[in-house]
Structures are given as structure tokens and as C-alpha cells.
Amino acid sequence: MRGGEPLGRAGLALLLMAAGAGARPRPGASGGQPRSSVVLVACDSLDGRLTFFPGNQTVDLPSINFMKRYGAVFLNAYTNSPICCPSRAAMWSGLFTHLTESWNNFKGLDPDYITWMDLMEKHGYHTQKFGKLDYTSGHHSVSNRVEAWTRDVHFLLRQEGRPMVNLTGDRKRIRVMEADWRNTDKAVNWIKEEAVNLTQPFVLYLGLNLPHPYPSPYAGENFGSSTFLTSPYWLEKVKFEAIKIPKWSSLSEMHPVDYYSSYTKNCTGEFTEEEVRNIRAFYYAMCAETDAMLGEIISALGVTGLLRKTVIIFTADHGELAMEHRQFYKMSMYEGSSHVPLLVMGPGVKEQQEIPNVVSLVDIYPTMLDIARIPVPQNLSGYSLMPLLCQKTDSEVSPRRPRPAWVLSEFHGCNVNSSVYMLRTGKWKYIAYSDGFSVLPQLFDLTADPDELTNVAIKFPVIVHSLDKILRSIVNYPKVSSSVQEYNKRQFISWKQSLGQNYSSVIANLRWHQDWLKEQQKYEDAIDKWL
């Protein structure tokens, strides 16, 4: 609501009754049924486990609960790369990261890549997008890409500000993340003024920055984003007593890649229990503000009568560790970082479904085409979600490929000193690194160990062998890791040459400047040795 209280659960329910969302046609059914419109709301850094019980007992998310009541929630949805640009590149292309070569936050899709939205427009949909897109190459800070390129250099530098919290405003301060609210308002106005008058189906995309942490200017000019910021209005929606304080391994027991991540994220120092609880509480409050923006979109569709003709999809590019495994941010295959929300409601979607199948963001592309009744290209990495969502599947546009029982995620960017590959299937999560033997793999039994505290790779060598075989059948990961190493070196050399005489001062003043300036020559020598 403009400037006023966001719509709560009761308000949404009344809207839905008024919109008559109970009687909803099937989105893909032919035989004269008009094609459904689609709204995709994609936020940034929302831990998918917050969208179902028992994962979330800490914060009320009425819009997400509303989507669960009138639609479906996926219990095992994953990002294909736990960082902004590569993840979005996978979602907009329908292809795994190693196929688009979206290696870091700077390297995404080519600007002329044909996305699902381009195809929908070509096939008669009216298209509109607002907010954060971030799937093409060329964005993010210089620090971000230089840290990714130099991750094989033998040095260890803090690249982020220490995670912290900041309370702003008073109980009346609802619109904390103003840029996101402005984009939400634009989308709401577009629904009420444009979409309502269209004669053709539409697809609307809204990209939100929340609940991504905010920039931390205190950390210097090339600061990262390590501040969890909210107002008392949102913080009051968090049940502090329900917040779980994560268990941490001692620094000496950590997996070597986890130690590198924790150190570069400035998390290896001492943190009190109160600090950790506050970081998590403020993060959950930021999730509540995100949920309210989703509610504004749902209510705009409700008051215009478009709700019963529109498929709504809510997801995120990746999660947020919020101090689990002694880390914040993403860039990790642990659940907090890699598990994303995925909820769908609309025509033909069975209500109150909890879908256990493993799915991932590459599935968005074929799903969009399926809703629009456009033949799905066979070269995509993803599979349409519609067969899992719909009561029945008559009149197929494309013959179905059987959905595999695994999902793949991979990471090649900053804050992690190795390429990482995650295969999730059944109760297992298998994580392989680099060339497959220079860094030890990890294996977690998510049924017995949902917090991923015990690596059982040595205990179950047969399982490791069979999962590694599946992983290698999907991606030749030692070869991909080697390609990324070569790419990083090439990019760094050309960047260094472009700076000429300014190289030493520029590299010293990136996000790692506080550590770098203490022993400048030592770090420059380490880079020369690597080159």
C-alpha cells in the first residue's frame, strides 16, 4: 500500500476471494483457453528454507504463506551458481553456468542472448521488466572481478567488511529499501494502468535487491556489502527466541575452502552469541520487507481482476548464510546459500502442494515457454516445472524429456579459492572441487545432518564414487576448472596491462586495502609468482 501498511495475510485472502481465484483454468490447456499471463518476482539472497516448515519459525511472511495456501512450494529448489550474475544468467538462459561461461559477477550472458522473455514477446506476449536484472556481462565492482581472477594466488586477504547490523528510523519506517519500493510501485502502477487494458497475455518481471545486505562505507572506498539494515517496524516481526544460533567448527577443523571463504569474508574473528543472533534477526526482518513487496504485486493483480488469469512465480538468485558455517553472504554450496525459494500459484496449479523433487533455476526458462505454449528447445539444461505443478497434463506442446533426479550447482567466483561443483540427489549432497583430487570432496546426508556439520565422504567411498561418476557425466569438471584458471590469468594480465603505471596503487586500494597496505610488496610478489 502506497506509504501505508503493507497488506497482511487477511487482506490478501479477502482480495483473492474477490478475484475469484478458486475457479482457475489450466495454463497450458489448448482448446480455446487463452494463454495465462505470468509475473516473476525474483529477489536477491533469500534462504529458501524460510518458505516452509520447519525451516521458518522465526519470521512471519504472509505473502509467501498466501502463495503456499493457493499454490505450490518447492521444498528442494537450488541456485545453479550461488552468486548474483551467474545465477541470473542460468535463470534467463536455461543453461548451466559452464555452458554460458558465466564465471563471476562480471561475466554473464552476452547482451544479445535470446532469453525466455524474448521468445515470449516473439510469440505474442506483452513484456515488461522493472528492477534488478543483472544477467549480462560487465557489471559489479572492479574489486569483485579482481578477487575472482586472483583466487589461485597464494595469499589470504580480508575482502569484506565485518558483518554488522544497523537499525534505522522508527516504528513508522516501512520503506527501508527505497529503490526496491520504487520498482515495486512502478510494477503495481503498470499492472493497474497498462496490464489491465491489454488484449494479449503479458509477462512481467520484477527484480528486487532485498534481502541482500547493504553496502558498508566504513570499510573504505571499495567497500563491500556487509551491513544488515532494517527498521523497528520489520524487526518486530521477528521472533528472537526462535532464532537458531548455528554451530561452528573450530577454525582448524574447517574444510580448507571454507576457511578461505570465512577469512576473506572477515568472519574468522570473535563473534558473541548476541552479534550472531542480531545479524540473523536483522536478515529475517529484511526478508519480511521483501515479502511485503511481493504482497503488493499479488494485491495489484487481485484488485484488477487479473489474479485468476496470471501465473505468479516467486524465487531468488541464491540464499544467505547469515553466519551459518562462520560465513555471511553466499558463494557456498551449504543450504543457507544454495537453497532458493520457489513458489508458484495461478491457473491450473494445484493448491497447497509441497513438491519434494529437486529443481533449479534453469527450470524457469522451459517453464515460461510451457505456460506460453511455445515449443521448448531440446538443448536447455532445465526442465519445465508444469508437470509437477498441474493436476493433469493434457495436450503437450513439446514431448517431455524425463526429469533427472539430481540438480547441479557450480561456483567459480570470488571468496572461494577453487571451482566448486555440487550435485544434489535424494538425501545426498556431494561437493567436488577443482580437478577432483587436489582438494578433498564433501558429502552430506541432509536427512541425518540437515545443518551439514559432518562430512561423511571418507565413511561412504562407494557413494562418493557413484555421485562423482554422475557429476562427470553432466560436466567434465576438471576441464572446466582448468579453463576458469586460464580465463582468470588472461583477464588479470590484460587488466594489469591496461593500468600501466597505476597498477600498484589501484590494486592496493581494492576491497582488501586494509590488509594489502600492511605488506604491499609481499602481495605483489605473490601475484608475480602466480603469473
TrEMBL record:
Its main location: other. Its cofactor is Ca(2+). Belongs to the sulfatase family. Gene3D superfamilies: Alkaline Phosphatase, subunit A. It is found in: Lysosome; Secreted. PANTHER family: ARYLSULFATASE K (PTHR46615:SF1). CDD domains: ARSK. Residues 1-23 form the signal peptide. The gene is Arsk. This is Arylsulfatase K. It catalyses: Hydrolysis of the 2-sulfate groups of the 2-O-sulfo-D-glucuronate residues of chondroitin sulfate, heparin and heparitin sulfate; an aryl sulfate + H2O = a phenol + sulfate + H(+). Catalyzes the hydrolysis of pseudosubstrates such as p-nitrocatechol sulfate and p-nitrophenyl sulfate. Catalyzes the hydrolysis of the 2-sulfate groups of the 2-O-sulfo-D-glucuronate residues of chondroitin sulfate, heparin and heparitin sulfate. Acts selectively on 2-sulfoglucuronate and lacks activity against 2-sulfoiduronate. InterPro entries: Alkaline_phosphatase_core_sf, ARSK, GAG-degrading_sulfatase, Sulfatase_N. Residues 38-372 form the Sulfatase N-terminal domain. GO terms for cellular component: extracellular region; lysosome. Its EC number is 3.1.6.1, 3.1.6.18. One of its GO terms (molecular function) is metal ion binding. Keywords: Calcium, Glycoprotein, Hydrolase, Lysosome, Metal-binding, Secreted, Signal.
